[in-house]
Structures are given as C-alpha cells and as structure tokens.
C-alpha cells in the first residue's frame, strides 16, 4: 500500500489548553480546559484495553470515502496489524472512527482534559475544537485524537444499513436517504479524530464514532439537547499523519 508521512505541528499541552478554552467559550456556557494526568481508561465507562492514550501518537487515514461512494469497492479491506506496522508502531493501541484511527503506545501520562456544558452556539463539540485550532494555527496543521464522554443529553447519530447500496449514491441527499438516523441517549463513549487543516492528503477532517454500555452506538453528528448536554474529554495532539492507500480520484460526498 502507498503510504505518505507528514509531521504535524505539535504545540505544548499547556498552549493547546489555553487555545481550546478560549474557543470553546464561544460555543458553550461552561468550559474548563486543563492539563491533567490521564485517568485509567481501563475502568468504566471507557473500558479500553490500555490505561492511557499517550506515547508516539499518530493519525492514520486509511483509504477514504471514495472507496464507499458512489459505489462500494469491497476489495478495500485493511488489516489493522499491517496498518500498525506501516506507521512504525507494531502492536500499537488503535482507537477512533473507522476512517481515521488514532494510534498510541497506551502509556498513562498527561493529557488535555476538556469539560464543556450547555451548548450555546451552532457547532458540535468536535467541530468547535477543530475550527478553534484552525483559526489559531492557520496553515500549521494540528492533529488530535482521544476520547470523550457525553455525560448528559442526547445526540443525533447514524448507522449504515446492513447492505451496501446497489445504486450509486451521487449526492449527500442520496447518502442521507440511505443511512439510518437515530437519536441516542447518554452516557456515550466517543472516539474522535480531527485535523485542523488538510495538508493536501484529501483527509476527512473530523470523524467520531461512539459506543455505550446500554446497547447504543454509531456515528456522532451533534447533540440535540443543548440546554443540558455535558461533555468530558481527554485529548492529545498527534505527532505524525500517515496517509495510506489514498484514493486517486476523490469527491466531497459523505464527509459529514
């Protein structure tokens, strides 16, 4: 597989915390961003297989939406063990949405803790953080990964149908008619990956999937209960981007 490597701009955790505190205040009533020791993520509600998300952080964007739309290419199946070797971290802990996993060594160290309550603006939690970083760092791309919990409230989400579409999906409207949309309730454990600006690799700039211990899961769009929603997240900047098997022909469909 073709693989390109890119070095992200990596600000200090303290600097990032200050930038995100300021940006999130424009979209949430109550915001607290600080640098803390990573909590033990093997415990509930996370139940991850490693204690932390620190150590040699990378974002791997593998394939892309053009392999799904307009028609699926079912030959595009990836072995995550091979992906881990491709990014020079064999045996890495991999988390994130399917289209953009975030790799670490699973160490327990310092992370950025983000608490945000009561959404007052139009942006979802992830988009607000991503656009805040883009506004501040401009043409210096910053990549982020980690996890957050939606502690209170409900979210709009989607899951894919059991079967791929047999008809070409040539617009976002057609994609949305094919997907199944639901409102799902907290608590939800989310796995986001986001990049402030695409450095020229046809990236999906943000992508978040979530699971729960009450049987609900899917792709996160935004909360539907802004007056009561509460987010608690732990994030780290990625050192490198690895763009693997980038589609030669692309489009802008299905990137929400």
Automatic annotation (TrEMBL):
Cell location = Nucleus
Question: What are the protein's GO molecular function terms?
Answer: hydrolase activity, acting on ester bonds; zinc ion binding
| Gene Ontology CC terms | nucleus
Q: Which InterPro entries match?
A: C11orf54_DUF1907
Q: Which UniProt keywords apply?
A: Hydrolase, Metal-binding, Nucleus, Zinc
- Per UniProt, residues of the DUF1907 domain are 19-244
Task: Describe the subunit structure.
Answer: Monomer.
Q: What is this protein called?
A: DUF1907 domain-containing protein
